[in-house]
Amino acid sequence: MLSALRTLWLTFLHLFHRRETIRYPEQKPYLAPRYRGRIILSRDPDGEERCVSCYLCAVACPVDCISLQKTAEDGRWYPEFFRINFSRCIFCGYCEEACPTYAIQLTPDFEMSEYERRNLVYEKEDLLISGTGKYPGYSFYRVSGLAIPGKDKGEAEGEEPPVDVKGLLP
Amino acid sequence: MATIHVDGRDYEVQPTDNLLHACLSHGLDIPYFCWHPALGSVGACRQCAVKEFRGEDDRAGRIVMSCMTPAADGTRLSIAEAEAVAFRKSIIEWLMTNHPHDCPVCEEGGECHLQDMTLMTGHSYRRYRFTKRTYRNQYLGPFVGHEMNRCIACYRCVRFYRDYAGGRDLDVYAAHNHVYFGRHEDGVLESEFSGNLVEVCPTGVFTDRTLANVYTRKWDLKGAPSVCVHCGLGCNTIPNARYGEVRRILNRYNGEVNRYFLCDRGRFGYGFVNGPKRIRRPLLAQDDGAAEPVAPTVALGRWASLLRDGRAIGIGSPRASLEANFALRALVGPERFHAGVADAEGRLLETVVAILRDGPAPAASLRQAEDSDAVLVLGEDAPNTAPRLALTLRQAVRRAAFALAEQQKIPHWQDAAVRDAGRDVRSPLVIATPDATRLDDIAMATLRGAPDDIARLGFAIAHAIDPAAPAVEGLTESAREQAERFAALLQAAARPLVVSGYGSGGEAVIRAAANVAQALRRTGRDARIVLTVPECNSLGLALMGGAPLSAAHAALRDGRARTLIVLENDLYRRADRASVDAMLGAAEHVVVLDHTLNETAYHADIVIPAGTFVEADGTFISNEGRAQRFFQLIVAEDGVKESWRWLNEAARAAGKSNARWDTLDDLITALGEQLPALAAIRDAAPAADFRIAGNRIRSAPHRYSGRTAIHADLTVHEPKPPQNPDAPYTNSMEGYYGRMPPALYPFFWAPSWNSVQALNKFQDEVGGALHGGDPGVRVIEPRPGADSDYAQEIPRPFARRDGEWLVVPQYRVFGSEELSALAAAVAERVTGPSLGLNPEDAAMLAVVDGDAVALELGGASHVLSAQIRPALPRGVAALSIGLPGLPAVALPAWARILPAPPELRT
After folding, report:
1. Across the interface, do B135 and A69 touch by the CB < 8 Å criterion?
2. In whole angstroms, how far apart are CA B47 and each of A126, B17, B39, B41, B460?
3. B-chain residues within 8 Å CB-CB of A104?
4. Coil, helix or strand for B583?
5. Which region holds residue B378: left if phi is over 0, alpha if psi is between -120 and 50, else beta?
6. Is the peptide bond before B902 cis (omega within 30 degrees of 0)?
7. Considering the domain boundaries, does residue B369 fall inside one?
């Protein structure tokens, strides 16, 4: 009896508390930058695709909802296609953890409901954004040993000029 | 046996092995780089350090390289001892100071021995903050990519390429901490074994360029045990596929056959499977001659209507499986089944079967060939006709060096020391061929002659070994002495080997080889024989039998047959154009089952899309008589089906009661009942109902990715993967993987061993047989007590003719084989057809190297580019064969050669 009255009293007190419910969608909640929502593919500071099609996101994905194929142009690796089946995605963020180039990132956007399941299949055109996302400065090819247009062998960060194989100096 | 004590436990090991070999054989993990089971130890990388103790009381111990330390009885060592662990970790840390930040864009990533070893040693953080060394890469041809920055200088590549495979154009340059592994300048790697660098390199310096275009990580590649289709040796392979497309071929270890290495034709010839000329749907010829794709039921209905009158004959194929050939044989009836090889080749194969079955010398597997201590090659240009055999012969000549090393108490695995001690010591290898071969550099003696002269030499050697063998009439004194010298070499050996086969083009040469083997056998030597055959199932087809090709022509011409069914065979490669045209013209209807459009298919009324070796299951019989099963890797979802299944469906549609089997195993059972000599093929691999703990075996690695996204662009409902009813595999990552019957391994992987080096975990002993024995069953062994009579028909010596040349076949490793030449990467290596001529003959004809000459052969004139071959005897010309646009005629044959008329010179 006493506990029932106490419950009524506490509920009554809530009339005077600050309201937690917000009027979504007119009013948007604050989501931290690290919120794990819709996945995007970012670009490096030079505006090139960051994804090098290394397949690490695909293999890290616990629900196997990422599928891609590598292709290359002038020594740079790209995904020929990059597909995420968001109807399977559990937004765990493992793909972002696995990504060695900061290409794949989760964003604070969860508004992606669809009436048709197939509309939740995102291709590379749907995923690729024009900016660098959360990691503004990083460019994988500036540290990688591969030669690409505009960056020859020995021109990456922390690299010596190429060895002269025919040189006799010690 | 010796006992060694490793971290407090005792292990029984071979005292002749080194500690690394012994520990790996027992499943212990020691990281290593420069050691390779086929290449031995050099102690270059310092990675396999362990601590060795002098006795039970020795607490301090000392660090030794396990690959350079014998597994002597009573050795005490520790792998887990703290100082050894720290030592190994620091070695990796040093290697990593220069290793680029490349793993995400490296084709080796995910199957990289360096990655595995880095994890195994526990190195995880780069303390070195200074600059990295870089190199420029080289173009090495269509097969192998080069990325020198990744090199850890283990020297495995040059040790394989130069020391093991005899290549000359890959070497190490520069000095100290910037040694460079490559060619002296950009260019195509010359060796036909260059593809093995991809597997030998522990990191991503040498990578598979055919895979790079459609790159997929190892964990995403499905595999299936398979058998190479590009020559008759039957090397075991693992084709890998993703998105329904074959993307590479890996070596599949078979201790008796190919062991660790493949040739480039076998590794890179798979491209025809994805080729633009693949037949994907049944085609029906229309009235206007064009072929229209039709539904399978329509094609089957039409085909069945042709079968009902019972006047169909079949032509089988040496590149189709035994099962497909048998299904055709059953459909048309054994007496109406024809072997799909040229008549001369058919006779040659019959001779081979007779020699292997009735002669006293058993066929040698490649491993047995490698153990031979004297080799006689008669007429065979092995580097071009059976490349993997040439690699084996290169190892066989090292027996003498190993024997010398043993005398000097050098262990066999001390690679550098054995090579030093045996620098100029080689076991006898005698090569008698019409033209120079790429094995001549290791031969003790080479002889050049026309096929008949080679045969005469063989007969003379046989007679010198055993006087009961027929003597050769009219031999010159020097030739007789030579024969006696070679006979003495073979007699001095404990395990002599005789090599011959289809490359010689002459039956007499093969019979001479058989006589030599027989003579050696009769005089108490453990002699073996290797007879090469041209295609992957040539021997299987020969064992099945069948009327010759000319009989098919006769049957069609006489009207005894109306419908011709051609199984996976381009008849224009079997006989000259005129006779094939006539044969196809004489047939009222032609049905062609094949996987790739060829000239024969253009003459067909019905073209049926057959599966290649990756879309079908079946059995091939290799040149040593080993039946080996290959399994379906890609379950094709369009019209492509196994040939035997199409034939089976045609039989049903035509209401025939024979040739009806639901599964491959039923077919194999029926085959065994009708052809008892082939009944053993059932044991080549477990049947389709084989299960381990109730599970099928998975064909994809456990981390196969993208399963809910691969088809999502087409349907989000994730269709069930198609299931192959004929093999014990799932078409996905569900199912069993672990120890299994050795014929079934779809890939090799073990925890913390992601690279090809995981193989160590699947062998009884490193470099030995796979757990459970090497796959395949021999279906031909000499009958007990077999000792047929010596062949007596000795050919007359070769005599030059005026104005005519004896044209002998010149096989090319790239180009002469039909299917591999369709692969884009191999096609890049194919050079145009040529006619080899002796320099004096060329001078007589007034042609120089590269000039056009006209060859009048088989009733037609062909313009070819002359190639001056100094080794070729006078009066003999070598015609590159199997290349497109060249006549398919039985060689050797006499022909006229003229300088090409000016209007034909291009």
Report:
1. no
2. 47, 18, 16, 12, 54
3. none
4. helix
5. beta
6. no
7. yes
Using CA of residue B536, residue B538, residue B541, residue B542, what is the dihedral sign?
negative
The whole-angstrom separation of Cα B593 and Cα B609 is 6
Q: Which amino acid is at B483?
A: A
Reported as type and span, the H/E element at residue B240 is strand B236-242
Query: At how many degrees (to 10) do helices B643-653 and B296-307 cross?
Result: 60
Between CA B819 and CA B618 the distance in angstroms is 18
Asked whether B435 and B417 are in contact (CB, 8 A), the reply is no
pLDDT digits (tens, 9 = 90+) for A97-148: 999 999 999 999 999 999 999 999 999 999 999 999 999 999 999 999 999 9
Rounded-to-integer distance, Cα B36 and Cα B43, Å: 11
Q: Phi, psi at residue A142, to the nearest 5°? A: -75, -20
- B197, B144 in Cβ contact below 8 A? yes
Is B104 close to A143, i.e. CB distance below 8 A? no
CA-to-CA distance for A10 and A5, rounded, in angstroms? 9
Q: Per the domain annotation, does A124 fall within a domain?
A: yes
Tell whether B217 is within 8 A of chain A (Cβ). yes
Q: Is the pLDDT of residue B619 over 90?
A: yes
Contact indicator for B516, B454 with CB cutoff of 8 Å:
no
CA–CA gap between residue B878 and residue B763 (Å, rounded): 44
Residue (of B756, B754, B701) closest to B120 by Cα position: B754
Token pair recorded at residue B584: 């196809």
CB atoms within 10 A of CB B895: 21
Give which of B796, B795, B232, B800 is closest to B512, Cα–Cα. B795
What's the domain count of chain B?
A: 3
* CA B374/CA B393 separation, integer angstroms: 10
Please, which pLDDT band fits residue B903 given cuts at 50, 70 and 90? low
With CA atoms as reference, the chain A residue closest to B131 would be: A158
Residue A69 falls inside a structural domain: yes
Handedness of CA B523, B529, B531, B536 (dihedral sign): positive
- CB neighbours (10 Å) of residue B837? 26
**The last residue of a domain, from among B63, B80, B97:** B80
Contacts of B101 in chain A (CB under 8 A): 143-145
Token pair recorded at residue B527: 């002699």
ipTM: 0.91
Contact (CB, 8 A) for B588 and B215: no
| Residue B788: pLDDT band with limits 50, 70, 90 | confident
What value does the mean pLDDT take over residues A48-70? 96
Q: What 8-state DSSP symbol labels residue A34? A: T
Q: From CA B453, how far away is CA B451, in angstroms rounded?
A: 5
Q: Is residue B905's pLDDT more than 70? A: no
C-alpha span between B93 and B729 (Å, rounded):
42
User: Using a CB-CB distance cutoff of 8 angstroms, which residues of chain A are in contact with residue B715?
Assistant: 118
The whole-angstrom separation of Cα B6 and Cα B74 is 10
The pair of three-digit structure tokens given for residue A133, joined into one six-digit string: 């996302």
Residue A169's pLDDT is what? 78
Distance CA B885, CA B895 (A): 18
Domain that holds residue A109: 38-136
Most B CBs within 10 A among A63, A70, A142, hence the mutation to make, goes to A70
Give the end of a domain, one of B80, B95, B115: B80
Nearest Cα neighbor of B466 from B458, B474, B454 is B458
* Local structure of B32: helix, strand or coil: coil
Domain assignment present for B654 = no
If you ran DSSP here, which 8-state letter would residue B795 be given?
P
Instruction: Give the domain range for residue B29.
Output: 2-80
More confident residue, B899 or B761: B761
The gap between the terminal CA atoms of chain A, to the nearest Å, is 94
What's the gap in Å between the CA of A81 and the closest CA on chain B? 11
Helix (H, G, I), strand (E, B) or coil at B661: coil
